UniProtKB/TrEMBL annotation:
Keywords: Carbohydrate metabolism, Disulfide bond, Hydrolase, Polysaccharide degradation, Serine esterase, Signal, Xylan degradation. One of its GO terms (molecular function) is feruloyl esterase activity. This is Carboxylic ester hydrolase. It comes from Setomelanomma holmii. Belongs to the tannase family. Its EC number is 3.1.1.-. The keyword Transmembrane helix does not apply. It catalyses: feruloyl-polysaccharide + H2O = ferulate + polysaccharide. It holds the Pfam family Tannase.
């Protein structure tokens, strides 16, 4: 978020309506009995509320709403963002999710790109490169029509850069 703020973007973050460090603490009515109201609030409603609040602040400050809205999320935040965007609940992996979206809309490449990074593992652990410049690539695509076919990746172990092509 700090990079986007430094470039003049307004940002918002949310705890998704969960006050504890572990969201599962309040997600069950009883052992094995999911509280669907809390789950829906955690997975979707809180994101919608945060987006509305952020857009309201931008409108109050600038006198008009934002021209573009971007989403950046990793792990749980990434899954929530994908569900927030199209209502499909991602539950297996990104490739499965991507293929599901592609089956529903053959023109998927007009709004969705999947860049795989072998060896990355969860949240930058592992020996694979960590994608760098994803936000800048997204802005170039949305605002200028320049679509990246690869993203720069930085090796967390060797501190070198290399490239990975999209699928």
């Amino acid at each position: 978020m700090s990079g986007a703020v430094a470039q003049g973007y307004a940002t918002v973050t949310s705890n998704d309506g969960v006050s504890s460090a572990c969201p599962s603490e309040g997600a069950l009515l009883s052992p094995g009995n999911i509280d669907y109201f809390i789950l829906n609030n955690f997975a979707l409603v809180s994101l919608h509320d945060a987006a509305l609040a952020a857009k309201s602040v931008v409108t109050s400050f600038h006198g008009h709403g934002p021209t573009y809205s971007y989403w950046s999320g990793c792990s749980k935040g990434g899954r929530q963002g994908m569900m927030f965007g199209n209502g499909i609940i991602p539950f297996r992996n990104l490739r499965y999710y991507y293929n599901t979206v592609k089956e529903l809309d053959p023109d998927v490449h007009g709004f969705y790109r999947l860049f795989e990074v072998p060896g990355l593992q969860h949240c930058a652990r592992g020996v694979g490169g960590y994608p760098a410049g994803t936000f800048d690539a997204l802005v170039q695509w949305v605002e200028n029509g320049i679509v990246s076919d690869a993203l720069e990746a930085v090796s967390p172990t060797k501190r070198t850069t290399f490239f990975r092509k999209r699928m």
